[in-house]
Every structure is written in structure tokens, then in C-alpha cells.
Amino acid sequence: MHSIIGAGIAGLSCSISLTEKNIDHEIFDKYSKNSPKAYGIQISPNASNILRKLGVLEKIIPQMHKIETIELISARDEKTLTCLPIGKFARERYHSDYYTINRNTLHESLRNLAEENKTVINYNSEITSTCVTEENTSISINKNTTHHTNTVILSSGINSESLYPATQKILRKKLKFRAFRATLNKNEIPLNLEMNKVNVWLGDTMHLVVYPIDVNVFNFVLIAKEKYYNKVNKTIDGENLPGNISKKINELISSIKWESWSLNESCTIQKNNFNLPIFSIGDSAHPMPPHLAQGAGMALEDGYVLAEILASKRTTEEMHQEYYKKRFSRVNKVIRNANMNGEIFHLNGVLEHIRNMYLKNLSGDFHLSKYDWLYNYKV
Ligand SMILES: Cc1cc2nc3c(=O)[nH]c(=O)nc-3n(C[C@H](O)[C@H](O)[C@H](O)COP(=O)(O)OP(=O)(O)OC[C@H]3O[C@@H](n4cnc5c(N)ncnc54)[C@H](O)[C@@H]3O)c2cc1C
User: Fold this and answer.
1) Contact indicator for 10, 4 with CB cutoff of 8 Å
2) How far is the CA of 157 from the centre of ligand 1 (A)?
């Protein structure tokens, strides 16, 4: 029996894929079935490729928004820097669309499928510790029940450090950026927004990403330098954001009631503990900056790939080696590119000018083709 800790996107991707291979497993989640507050998520072609394989894509297509364009805009003067024709590009190149969706819709659809598969999902079951040795593997549920298992699959999200074996060193790096999220109705927004477009405003102290998630509802993600976070009222005030941001964008930021997250990065798919039956997928393995919109994409890929490896029934060490081979360099490349975007999005002065020229003077297809390695991934 494999025990999956966490019924998030990574855990459910792994579960659905294990069921397809007739592999016994169970899931534990610390929360009840209720979904958290709805936010949005971008689903790139590599992520929809996995959703298709899981049998979920067709079910959620009616609730997804097909994105035709990603428009990059200067937050300084609100002028367009470039329009990336992502819809046409993704269809021609990857035979897939680029979507946005309400994260809860995606999550519920994965969970419904796991439940239809008759997978046991133990809600209100917080795994408070794990004991993983070569002889014995167990997990502790709600601090009071010890549960024996064969393999632990950690998919418990960003705060999973305490569940790793003591021998696995976790080096989480706190990022200098903080994420703020909000959802707003179209009629509350003083901007010209379209239902098939992602808008990104680039400023030196922040960038703002806006896209549709439900009928006339838009998701706002603001990434700003951590130092501008107001710890007292737990929000961000546009007027306190110095730098090259227009008055309109400034006022918009100030008028929104944000929820915020601190951001971390690391990759724990490492070459140690290869003899222990514990694997880690999704954010628990590699929290990453959101500047490439790939956290859920990587969670889906990890879960799917790990299930295939577990089905191969090799030794624990061989399975770890295979997982490392398939995931380590890809995930690290995503993290590196996300960090690079973080730098490029927030340039100022001469470098900002050079970036803008580069964006304006080269074609959208050229800019997008740099992500072939990411979007065209075949698991
Ligand atoms: C601002 C922002 C914007 C983002 N935008 C995008 C985007 O556009 N596209 C994209 O692909 N990704 C995006 N992401 C990232 C994405 O949301 C995450 O990477 C993804 O949800 C990770 O899934 P997961 O299953 O690994 O973790 P989670 O979704 O966090 O799931 C973890 C699960 O484990 C459970 N759990 C935790 N601890 C325990 C425990 N001890 N015992 C039992 N259960 C436990 C939790 O209840 C939860 O259900 C964004 C992230 C941020 C912060």
C-alpha cells in the first residue's frame, strides 16, 4: 500500500494515475472536503497534456478560458510592450490550448475522479510525523494513530519540511518577492479586460498579472518585493510602492483587498536517501517562484511520472534514480527560468529600456519559441 499525504493537485494526479495502473494506495488530507477561497491558475500545454492523460481535461474544458494573447504592458506608462499570440502558437506547435481556470474547479474535478475511482481519501487526517527506515515505514495521524504503510508519497505542499526523514537536509530559500492575490468582478475593474487574454504589467518594484477565471470574474496576482508588504494591516499599499508605476495602476493596487503569501524555493529531488521508500512531489518537493506559472504544472507532471515509476516495481533505489533522472533537471530549469523572469520583469533604467526594445522588436512567435522545452514536454 502506498500512502499519499495531501489531496492537492500533485497527490491527486499521482492517485488517478496509480489507479489506472491498479496500484493500491490511500490518501490523507488534513482538511475536510471544503475548498479554500477560489483563485485562478494558468494551465499551459504541458499541464493540459497531463490532464488529458488523467481523463480530466475534457471534463473541465467548458469551465476553462481559452487564452489567445498574453499582453505585456509597461506599468510606467501603460503602453503595450508586446502581444504574445499564445493561443495560435500553442495550437499549431503543441496541438493544445493555453487556458486559465478557477483553481477550485480543477481541484474538485481531480478529487471527483479520485472518488469515482473509489480511492480512500481520509479527510481531517493530518500527518504529524513520518518514520521511514529501510525496515519500517509508518506515519502518525493527528498525533495519536500510527499507521503502517509501504511507501510514503509526500504531496503536502510548501510546509512539508517536518515530514522529511531527518537525514534529508531541506534548504528552503525565502524569496525577496511576496505574492498577493484577489478576485474581482469585471464591473469593479477600471481596466479594459478581455475574457481570452492574460494581461501582465511590468514595473520595477512589482508585476501584476490579470486573467479570467469565471464568467466576468478576473484573478489578480501581484508580485511585489517583500519589503513593501505592510505587516501591520497585512496588505500592500500602491502608494507605498516606489518606482515606475502609473497613477492608475497605483490606485488600482491600493483599492484591492489582497490576500498574501510569502514565497520560497528549493528542490528536494536530490541524490540522497535513495534507499528509503519516501518520495516527494509538487510543492512539497520544490516550492518555486510563480513567475513562470508552473507550480501546478510541475505538480501534475511529478504525480503522473512517479506513478509510472512506482508501477515499474523496481527496487526503491532504482525507482528513486529514475525519478531523479526524469524530474530533477526539468524542475530546476523551471525554477531558474522563473527566477530569471522575476529579474527581467522588474528591470529599471537602461536595462528596462533594453528589455522593452527587445520585447517590441522581436516577434511574439520568437519570444514564445524559447519555451518549447517547457510546453512541449512529453512524459
Ligand atoms: C500567487 C501564485 C500564483 C500561482 N499561479 C500558478 C499558475 O498560474 N499556474 C500554475 O501551474 N501554478 C501556479 N501556482 C502554484 C500552484 O498553485 C501550486 O504549485 C500547486 O497548487 C501545488 O500543488 P501541490 O499539490 O503540490 O500542493 P497543495 O496544492 O498545497 O496541496 C497540498 C495538500 O496537502 C494537504 N496537507 C498539507 N499538510 C498536510 C499534512 N501534514 N497532512 C495531511 N495533509 C496535508 C493540504 O491540505 C493540501 O490539500 C501559483 C502559486 C502562487 C503562490
Assistant:
1) no
2) 5
Counting atoms of ligand 1 from 1, which one is nearest the CA of 284?
A: 26
Q: Does ligand 1 lie within 6 Å of residue 39's CB atom?
A: no
Q: Give pTM, 2 decimals.
A: 0.96
For the record, the C-alpha cell of 111 comes out as 478529487
Place of cell 517583500: 226
Q: Which residues, 6 or more positions from 196, have their beta carbon under 8 angstroms from its beta carbon?
A: 65, 66, 67, 68, 69, 87, 212
Q: Which atom of ligand 1 is nearest to the CA of 296?
A: 11
One-letter identity of residue 134: E
Any atom of ligand 1 within 6 Å of the Cβ of 180: no
- Ligand 1: residue whose CA is nearest its atom 44: 29
Residue showing cell 498579472:
209
pLDDT confidence of 2, banded at 50, 70, 90? Answer: very high
Domain boundaries, given as residue ranges, for the chain = 2-172+264-375
Query: pLDDT averaged over the chain?
Result: 93
What's the CATH code, domain 2-172+264-375?
Answer: 3.50.50.60
Cell of 256: 484591492
In angstroms, rounded to a whole number, what is the distance separating the alpha carbons of residues 134 and 131? Answer: 10
The strand pairing partners of 261, in sequence order, are 179
State pLDDT tens for residues 275-288. Answer: 999 999 999 999 99
The whole-angstrom separation of Cα 296 and Cα 60 is: 16
Per-residue model confidence (pLDDT) at position 378: 84
| b/e map 114-148, b = 16+ CB within 10 Å | beeeebebeeebebeebebeeeebbbbbeeeeebe
In this model, does residue 169 exceed pLDDT 80?
Answer: no
* Residue keyed to cell 495531501: 6
Question: From the CA of 156, how far away is ligand 1's center (Å)?
Answer: 8
Q: Whose CA is nearest to atom 50 of ligand 1?
A: 290
